[in-house]
Amino acid sequence: xxxxxxxxxxxxxxxxxxxxxxxxxxxxxxxxxxxxxxxxxxxxxxxxxxxxxxxxxxxxxxxxxxxxxxxxxxxxxxxxxxxxxxxxxxxxxxxxxxxxxxxxxxxxxxxxxxxxxxxxxxxxxxxxxxxxxxxxxxxxxxxxxxxxxxxxxxxxxxxxxxxxxxxxxxxxxxxxxxxxxxxxxxxxxxxxxxxxxxxxxxxxxxxxxxxxxxxxxxxxxxxxxxxxxxxxxxxxxxxxxxxxxx
Length: 246
Ligand SMILES: NC(=O)c1ccc[n+]([C@@H]2O[C@H](COP(=O)([O-])OP(=O)(O)OC[C@H]3O[C@@H](n4cnc5c(N)ncnc54)[C@H](O)[C@@H]3O)[C@@H](O)[C@H]2O)c1
Known about the structure:
Layout (H helix, E strand, L loop, with lengths): L2 H4 L6 E5 L4 H12 L3 E6 L2 H11 L2 E4 L5 H11 L4 E4 L14 H29 L2 E6 L3 H4 L5 H21 L4 E8 L5 H8 L4 H5 L10 H12 L10 E4 L7
Parallel strand pairs: 1-2, 1-4, 2-3, 4-5, 5-6, 6-7
């Protein structure tokens, strides 16, 4: 029995979306150091190319809002051992001020695009009878939150999807898990924290008294897709400094 062996990703082919920034870039760095063969994807070409160069990875530019683009990514990536559905957007607005275009964008990227990629990649995993799929959800799926209505709903849908996919694909050797981070300082949340949009009030509710760090979320992601978590499936693990229990 060896815990460090379980965290060795040598030769494991991992498709990671949203890899150009934030959690995705941190995950790419950790997985690369652990020996993984990375296929990185994002809509932002330049930062994606930089992360891919640092990690010796394949890079694919794609738009998760576009079903054809998602399909092309799945085809270009080919068979992978692990999918990490991390790409996402946040529209931080009161529900009554959120336009139809804005709510469609959040649902299309954070839910429909992630679901479609899970389906396309999951089919091959089921056929090969092995694989792990991790989606990055959100603590807001459990807590809700001011200016988070549509985002929280999309992330709740991902957590719910994780349960059913795990039940259907578990007998075929495929694990499906979800990681729900609390607020962590990335580009996505920096602006809202600066503007104080539920930022300071939210922090008072975090028992650990601080926002998350990208490396803390990346390490938990790594644990969940590793063989150390081989008996975990269908679960959403919350890493939020205790916010939803506060
Ligand atoms: N930062 C937080 O506090 C927090 C908390 C909970 C969940 N999350 C989730 O973590 C994930 C990563 O977010 P982050 O905080 O690192 O933010 P980020 O903005 O730094 O990274 C998101 C990445 O997704 C990419 N992306 C956005 N739209 C895309 C599209 N249509 N097609 C392809 N790629 C696209 C972006 O280019 C970016 O590289 C997201 O799913 C987000 O919802 C973040």
